[in-house]
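forwarding from the other thread:

> can someone predict this with adenosine-5'-triphosphate?

sure thing
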Amino acid sequence: MIPTPPQPLIRLTGLTKTLKGQEEPRAILAGVDLTVHAGDSIAILGRSGSGKSTLLSLIGLFDRADGGQYLLGERDITRLPERKAAALRSAEFGFVFQRFFLLKHLTAAQNVAMALVNGQGWLPRRKRRAKVMAALERVGVAHLAKHKPPRLSGGEQQRVAIARALVREPRVLLADEPTGALDTDTGNLVVEVLRSTTEQGCGLVLVTHDHDHAAKMGRVFHLSDGLLHQGSASARVVV
Ligand SMILES: Nc1ncnc2c1ncn2[C@@H]1O[C@H](COP(=O)(O)OP(=O)(O)OP(=O)(O)O)[C@@H](O)[C@H]1O
């Protein structure tokens, strides 16, 4: 018997987004196709303003596409109303940004625990603690659980932010320039940490300007003229 291929986590087909400002409407995404399976790691490269963050915000349900189709598993969520989108966003996605957005008066563990408050109500203390410590452990900073952000390096803070994104066990991690504020070595470490999350079945979509970081992902796409072109990290699409 031929095994059935696994169901994709995400399937985007012909996704479009046009900006309707005061000037002429401008197509930012002109028909994006992308499939993400469990355990996939995907890099999206592209020049500044090409629409990478726009695409990530559509995938993460911060915004909705104008056209095309967005399937999450088998569910069509192309035109989901905001209330439902918010619930799905916190249940299914983890987000990592260039800035860490940690609360400086809370410890690393408390920062990670904050993500559990909104998503799952208050879990019993012991369960909450176990989840928080497991997330910190996963990114190699459990020993810093009691430290507050001002005492942590940039790379350590970003790892705490990744733990915060992982603690609700998202199906997909969306990272927008997560190494933008870090030096080269620290950035490399953070990319390794992000890549390692896919070993436990998380899907990862990384937006980056760094071709070396992109090359560490399983698939590399270039966004240009509103379309995703699959290629290698070194192949620069002429725009
Ligand atoms: N809310 C908005 N209002 C007006 N223009 C916007 C808005 N959001 C994005 N844009 C424009 O849409 C285009 C795509 O922006 P986007 O941030 O997605 O690009 P990007 O590839 O992520 O860029 P960068 O690499 O510089 O972060 C840009 O020209 C940007 O100026």
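The radius of gyration is 18 Å. thats all i got for now
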